[in-house]
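Hey everyone, long-time lurker, first post.

I ran two proteins through the pipeline my lab uses and got sequence/structure pairs for each. Pasting them in order. The first:
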Amino acid sequence: MPAERIILFFDGVCNLCNAWVDFLVRRDKHKQFLYAPLQGETFKGVLAAHPELSALDSLIVVHDRTDGSQEIFTHSRGPLFLASRLGGGWSIARAFFLVPKFVSDALYRLVARLRYSLFGKKETCRLPSPAERELFLP
C-alpha cells in the first residue's frame, strides 16, 4: 500500500508564500507535509501528469492518498486543507470548507494577484535550513 504524501508547491520567490511555508514548518509537529517550489524539478514532474496546473502560480497542494488516489487542491482549498491537517485548534479550518468555493477562491485570487505588491518578492527561491532540508523537494 502506498504511503500518504502531501506536497505543498509554492512560489519560491513570493514573500507571502514563503511566510506560509514557514508557518506550516513550525506547526506541523508530525512532519506530514513536504514542500517544493513551483520553479523546481519536482513540480515539472507534476505538470507532466497535470498540464492544467501550468496556469497556476501561487499554492498547489498534491495529496497522494494511501489508496493510490490523488487529490489536488488549488486556490483557497489548498491552505484550508493544510491548516485542517495541523490538528489542535487549527482543525477549525474545516469549517471554512462550508464557505462557497467561488467566494473563497475570489478572495484567494485577489490576494494572489496583489501578493508581490503587498508582501514583496525575493530575488531567488527560498533555501531550507539544514534542519528543514528533509522536508523540501527540488
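...and the second, right after it:
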Amino acid sequence: MKNPVILKRLKAFAIDYLLILLYIGILLCGTLLTGSLFHLQFNIADPITGEITGFLTLTLPVMLYFTLSENGQYAASIGKRKLGLQVVTPFHKKAGFGQLLLRNGIKFLPWEMAHFYIYRLFYNDPITKNTPDWVLTGLILAQALAVIYFLCILFNKNNRSIYEILSGTCVVETVRN
C-alpha cells in the first residue's frame, strides 16, 4: 500500500472490530440466558421488530462507541488510539459531535442495510416461496457499498472514504508534541 496510514487504519479497525465481536458475544450470551431478546430479534413473523431490536442493541451502540470515542479527548477509537491515529477535520481541527455522528452513520450504513435485508431473507420461507429479487439485490448493494468505501480510501488522493468526505472528517496520524 502506498500510504502507511491506510495500513494503520486497517489494523485499527481490526482492533475495534475485536471489541465489537466481544460486545456481540456478551449480547448473545445474555440473549441465550434470558431468551427474550433472541425471541424478539429472530421472530420470523415480524421482521420489523427484529430490525428495530437489532438496531437498538447492536448498530446504535457500535455507532455511539465510535462517535463518542472519536469526539473524546483523543479524537480516536481504541483501535485508532493504539495505532496513533485520530479523526479530525481536513484542517486538523477537532471534529464536532454532529460530524462524527454523520460519519459513523454513513460508515455503518452498509452494515445496517445488510441487517435489514437479512431479516427479510429469514422472513421468506424458502420451502414455500423464493426469496424476492429485491432482498437479494439489497444484500448485494450493501456489500458493494462497503467495498466502495474501502476502495475510496485506497484510491482517493487524501485516503478519505465517502463517509469522511460527506461528514467533513479525515483520519490522520496523531501529532506528537
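Reply from user beta_strand_b:
Welcome! Quick read of the second one: The CA atoms of residues 92 and 172 lie 8 Å apart. The chain has one domain: 4-173.
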